[in-house]
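Repro:
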Amino acid sequence: MRYSILKKHFKFLIDEYGFKIAYKQRLGYTQIVYINSQVRITILGDENISILISDADSLGTCYDVTEYCEEFKTQGNYKKKALFASRWLKNKIEQVLDK
């Protein structure tokens, strides 16, 4: 269920920015990895949602990944949490593209 919610709310990465799903884990710990030629975005969906951003060619170690979770943390059901996280990420992407 969490996977479906995350996939729905972060679909804009595919539709608007040309990302592809490079990895997904549905059972247990939910994870979706989106990648394009420059950026890797990992959505981790536990009780709270985390977004990890790194270069596409990075190894994904703690030294080259930036993790966000407090920026969009909210109370409520999982759909609300996913909505807040996806809106935050879309705004973050738009800010970077405007520079």
